[in-house]
Fold each of these.
Amino acid sequence: MLTWNASDYGGIKLLIPRSQDVFRPSIALLNTMGERDLFKEDEAPVRVHPDGGVTWLPGSIFHTACKLDLTNYPFDEQTCKLDMIAMDFEPDMLQFVAIMETAGQLFYLENGEWEIKSSKMSAEIIDVGDSPMSSIVVSFTLRRKPEFLVISVLLPIVFLSLLNLLVFLIPVDSGEKISFGITVLLAMSVFLSITSQMLPKSSETMPKMIRYIFCLLIISLLTVVDSIIIVKLHHMEEKDEHASPNTEPTAFSTWIPKILASNGSQASPSPYDLGPRHGDGESSSRSTSPVVEERVTRKVKANRYKMIGKYIDLVSLLLFGLVWVAVTVEFLISSGAKI
């Protein structure tokens, strides 16, 4: 009905009638979150050629639903589809044909968050309820651009977790060992909450990035607990001194040598003598008093506590460092991190 011989009409090879005067199929979008009928009020021009070919270029903003898999977030790829059907016709009356294998990108403007990795077009017969309908499916494979998220969220968390390992290099006597670890722990908790708010709520899977941050949070928590134990061991000396009896010289312990000397007996050495006494060319070896032995024992025990704390510091630095490296490498490999 729309064909003519151009030579019979003065060489006219193109007609542009009103779009309402030309047959246009009613096209609906199945996976829509907005208006289902896509082009019911579209006034895009219709171009009619002498051979009966009609070109119609409608346009619209499609609000579609897309199921997301955020397992590898922010290094994820998503596949979204546009399922368009002809609502008023059976497949034997109207059937779509995909004249291209991929979606055209002539007027595509690059997005700041996503890039189109590939696209595909196909014509299918699908069942809508009990009725088969002709449909055309346009699918896009989108790859997220992770640079912004990596720089603004992931790298600060990694640096904080690495900084948290340095808590084992802080001397206990500085008094900042525990407070430093708790500060880093709180900072990581804030970043974890920020990352959770950035994620879409429609994901059915747990992102590996959240698991990775949670593992770093656990490591940070364990380093704080470890630091508390180390500080406790370091101050075991004060606990022993408070628990030990008073060993300061008393009047009774001072009078005993004087009484023995007045009786002509050889005065026994004061319990506070730290070594042998030399006099009149004679040297006598004296055994160490019990009080001195107790002091030395406490001193050795205190030094032993401090040495244990230092060894725990060293071992913890190596152990938590290896765990941090293992967790980070596993996350990068499993999520396919490519920047």
Amino acid sequence: MDDKTETGEDAGGDVAEDEEMTPPENFSPVCGLIYRSSFPRPENFGFLSKLKLKSILMLIPEEYPTENMEFVKKEGIRLFQVGMSGNKEPFVHLPDDVLSKALEIAIDPSNHPLLIHCNRGKHRTGCLVGCIRRLQNWSLTMIFEEYRRFAAPKARPLDLQFIEMYNEEQVSRIASRKGWLPLHW
């Protein structure tokens, strides 16, 4: 018998090498303890466990699959759902108030560490992250570059327009009053 225990740990207490540690597609730190990704799959749960997430912000209207709900419950993660429709020509547009609701959840430190995701971690997640960058006073050039990097090969002009035109005044006021502004990000 080798020196691995029944729990998958070797005698030194390290996790077995064969345990899945695969991040979701488009995974990346955003700032502080905010992360972004595509929709997490079961093969990503080991990786996400290591982040010690307190919250997940899901930006799609569909129900979470059973295996994801079991993971969230097992890990004690709070699940927020702000169902957004993506900006698609000619008639589907993301409403400001929906994005504001998601933004308030995302920047509230009591929800961190937080994972933000939609289906592919590109467009809806990109709009939200772009608005976080606006709160951080990033230039539009840098915001659009980051958006395009994650949305490639299919950046949506309406998303870029939304990020540019989004009026973050209400969220900025709330964030300032609660001390959430990302001064230390």
Amino acid sequence: MDIQFRQLEKWFGTLQALKPLSMTIQSGEFVSLVGPSGCGKTTLLRMIAGLEDPAAGPILFGGTPVFDSENHINKPPQKRKIGMVFQDFALWPHMTVFENVAYGLKATGRKREVKEKVTDALKSVQLDAHHERYPHQLSGGQQQRVAIARAIATDPEIILMDEPLSALDASLRDEMRILLQSLVKKLNMTAVYVTHDQSEAMAMSDRVVVMNAGEVQQTGTPEEIYQRPVNDTVASFIGKGTLLDGLVTEVEEVPMLKVSTEVQIPLSSKKTKGLKPHDWVHAIIRPEQVKLDTKPSEAGLAGVVETVSFLGERYEVSVKLHGCNERLFAYTHEKTAPGQEISLTVRNTIHLIQHKGGLTHEETA
């Protein structure tokens, strides 16, 4: 079932938590809402669920309004055919696993289907053997599986998830991420997933919606968001890298990004299309676009290694450039040491964002 918003907005007193938003989430699509705390992503999720009322703008499920203030339509959450998974699991401690999963079915009056639906839901999350246990007898990962089973037991057409993996450790998050992805696709549900973890959103989603200060900054596939951010807010929030501010120049007919007098980076002519010499741009430089060389090179940029982090299959190296107050990150299979002089080259296909104003600098994590 698709979800549509038309000029949807939300105010809390004098604070505009969500600026007018129009969007369609396609049926069967897995969409993640990402952004810093307070950006409006959870508020949007709660309005879809019916837990918050919009200040303006209808919400439609499959073309049918579930909220429309002008026509006095406001379906309660239990009438919206949704399932919801919360960050803190929200399980009843005095109920067994079976009773927790059955709760939603009983609340919506589907008592005759309880045993079959609960059994099927618990099998889907590999917990059918634990139906008589209580939440305190389960691990964190098992408790989250119960919460997921409860959400899907009612056969929802839409599943809403509010940072459901943030309370789990790293290995469990990976396991649960795979489970959620496979269940959503298998059951052909439309999924809206809220997270502040951009890597989690990139790994799971068909589309990512990046939000900031109550406004959507960019919507696109994970590849589009990562490779072609529309502004520096998206570029700095999504992925690791460095956002450099520089001047477009030309040296012997080769377009260059002039970061300082001593630091100039070759650019692709395709990337500079539409730009003029002396235009200010932001350039997002990802670690995989930087190549390190332990031998001095006239064609490369000179720098000194600041930190080296071992990531298992490779090293992540931060390099302080000579000639400017900037730092780049790089991935390499060759071990280096802090303080080591190094040469680096940057791929000329780095993404540029045109802007006006003076110099700014931001490193992304």
